[in-house]
Amino acid sequence: MIIYGVTLLAVCTLLGVAIGQLLGTLIGIPANVGGVGIAMVLLVLVGSTLQKRGVLDLKSEQGIEFFSAIYVPVVVAMAAKQNVYGALTGGPMAITAGIAAVVLGFALVPVLDRWGRESQSEEQTEAMTAEESRHV
After folding, report:
1. 23, 24, 72, 93: which one has the fewest Cβ atoms less than 10 Å from its Cβ?
2. Where are the domains of the chain?
3. How far apart are CA 37 and CA 16, in angstroms?
4. Nearest 5°: CA angle at 86, between 84 and 90?
5. Which tens digit of pLDDT belongs to each residue from 1-57?
């Protein structure tokens, strides 16, 4: 299977990691600071710029879209693993903060659901009113 768009992904990843390492060094942290995020932003910016200029063929565009789609979940999973490890080694306050964030997130699901339903019903009411006024 031929994989398209790998070069662009690799270049963006290497640049992002290098910039993240440089940022870490500049602010005095012996770690990569935001390198993966920078790589993702570079991938989006360079990919859309090349697409607007018409440089990419269809298969390359599809390959870049594929890698963009799988890149985010992989990065989120890696960050989540690091966050759990940091919380376990960071003591009870970090664990308490993590549990509180999860509980608050679950508690807000019904509230957000209600807001979504209310705005949807308001839009339907406005659409029906506009439709009725056209027929008058």
Report:
1. 93
2. 1-90, 91-136
3. 7
4. 120
5. 456 778 888 888 899 889 989 998 998 888 788 888 888 888 888 888 888 888 877
pTM surpassing 0.90?
A: no
Q: How many Å apart are CA 107 and CA 129, to the nearest integer? A: 35
Give the DSSP per-residue string, 11-25.
Answer: HHHHHHHHHHHHHHH
Question: How many Cα neighbours within 13 Å face the side chain of 30?
Answer: 0
Q: Which of 69, 99, 62, 65 is nearest to 83 (CA)?
A: 99
Amino acid in position 4: Y
Tell the residue number behind the tokens 């699901």, with chain if given.
109
Closest among 87, 115, 113 to 100, alpha carbons compared: 87
